[in-house]
Design brief:
Elements lengths: L10 H13 L3 H7 L2 H16 L4 H8 L6 H17 L7 E3 L4 E2 L4 E8 L14 E8 L3 E6 L3 E4 L5 E4 L13
Antiparallel strand pairs: 1-3, 2-3, 3-4, 4-5, 6-7
Length: 174
């Protein structure tokens, strides 16, 4: 399967585009901007929730950028709804910090804040929304996580917090 390259010059542009897709309900475009591991973890979660047992073939099919059909539509609708709730304060647009922080050889973290009145709290700490992006030579930047946890495919799928993103009051072990 050949995934088209995403023509984003920097990781913050990728997050900006992803948020615009989320805001305007462009689920198919949103799905195409996601990193392969994130799409696979979402598909594995869906497979476990719907049929209750691991199914590599079904999960791989749902994780594809070309996926379609009723099961894919249900999965995408559910994940878009969840992300809209999680990132509701970004619904009217987002202020994206242009200084992405490197957290790995091919990973950067982009921080977004809601526009006023939410963004007004930025000076007092605000509510930052973290997005982990991944660079791939063939694909460019993609969204690898919408939060501080990087997904790890498997049965069951898991995730891990990048050490630099771990809250200071959270113990090191998961």
């Amino acid at each position: 399967m050949l995934i088209p390259a995403l023509d984003f010059p920097c990781s913050s542009d990728t997050v900006r585009y992803w948020l615009e897709c989320l805001r305007h309900g462009a689920g198919r475009e949103l799905w195409g901007v996601l990193d392969e591991d994130l799409r696979l973890v979402i598909a594995q979660d869906f497979v476990l929730a719907t049929i209750g047992v691991p199914d590599d073939r079904r999960a791989a099919g749902l994780a594809s950028c070309e996926a379609h059909g009723p099961a894919f539509d249900r999965m995408l609708t559910a994940v878009v709804r969840r992300w809209r709730q999680t990132h509701a304060e970004l619904a009217d647009g987002a202020q994206i910090d242009q200084r992405a922080a490197g957290v790995g050889a091919d990973l950067e973290v982009v921080v977004a804040y809601g526009r006023p009145p939410f963004g007004a709290r930025r000076a007092r700490g605000g509510n930052p929304h973290l997005f982990i992006t991944r660079f791939g030579r063939a694909r460019g930047w993609s969204v690898a996580a919408a939060g501080p946890r990087l997904p790890a495919p498997g049965w069951p799928p898991t995730s891990w917090v990048i050490p630099q993103l771990r809250p200071k009051d959270e113990p090191f072990g998961d």
